[in-house]
Amino acid sequence: MIKPQNPEVWSDFDGTGVIIAKKHNPRNWLKYPLPMIDGYADFLRGVQSGGVEIAGIVSRRPAIRRTVTARSIAQLGLDEFFPGKHQVVLSGSETKKARHLVDRSEDRLVALVDDKPHRIGQELIDALAQTCDVPSADQESHRQVILGAVHHSKSEEYFAKLGEHVAARDDVGYATNEQGLHIRGSMFDLLVVQVEPYSHEAGLAFAREVDSSI
Q: How confident is the model at residue 22, as a pLDDT?
């Protein structure tokens, strides 16, 4: 079982919290200023009202983007949720982003909200398998991660791609249910759920999903 620590929710940023510009738009190259996605702040407030901690942002942005990321957070009023520098983790890659979350999951349930579940989902499975799939009698080493797949025009396609990847693996078990896709290793559980369009109610529902999985 997970040790009795409070669960925490992390958020991706580009495409999840802020809108990415088209490929040749200099604003996208600079990563500033990028507009916030409608309802994102309301969603985060909903998570908080559900009694679940907003731990921070974890992004594949490289650390060199730290200044512009901090400026965007302040400009958009998101420092309400991410007031501390330690709450903004710029990993530089999807692999390192997944590793950060798996490391955090050692003693608590960790959840991530992300717009590309097929990419980060594969990295999470790899990181969890590398960390957890050594048989152990220590039940406290069992890890739980929830991946919230953000609703958008390609979310169903991305969800299906992750399902195809999981089905092709022989080192994990999986099942689909009303909550989404449940992926199981010998010492971990990864639950992938669809996040409804951003709103306070959607954030509250996601917090309840996290809370019920403890």
A: 86
Answer for the pair 27, 34: CB distance below 8 angstroms, yes or no.
yes
CA 127-133-139 angle, 5° bins: 110
pLDDT digits (tens, 9 = 90+) for 76-95: 999 999 999 999 999 999 99
First to last CA, the chain: 9
Helices (H), 55-213: 66-75, 94-104, 117-132, 155-168, 200-212
> In this structure, are residues 213 and 205 in contact, taking their beta carbons and an 8 Å threshold?
no
Q: Kindly report whether the global pTM for this prediction surpasses the value 0.85.
A: yes
Separation in Å, CA 139 to CA 105, 134, 162: 14, 12, 28
**DSSP SS3 for 177:** strand
- Per the CB < 8 A criterion, the answer to whether 47 and 203 are in contact is yes
Does CATH place domain 8-17+37-65+84-212 in 3.40.50? yes
Listing DSSP states for 19-72 in one string gives: PPPPTT-HHHHHT-S-PBPTTHHHHHHHHHHTT-EEEEEEESS-GGGHHHHHHH
Taking the C-alpha atoms of residue 102 and residue 156, their distance in angstroms, rounded to an integer, is 25
Task: Give residue 139's pLDDT.
Answer: 47
Tell me, rounded to whole angstroms, the distance of Cα 134 from its chain centroid: 25
Nearest CA to 148 among 201, 202, 107?
202
Element (H, E) at 8: strand 8-11
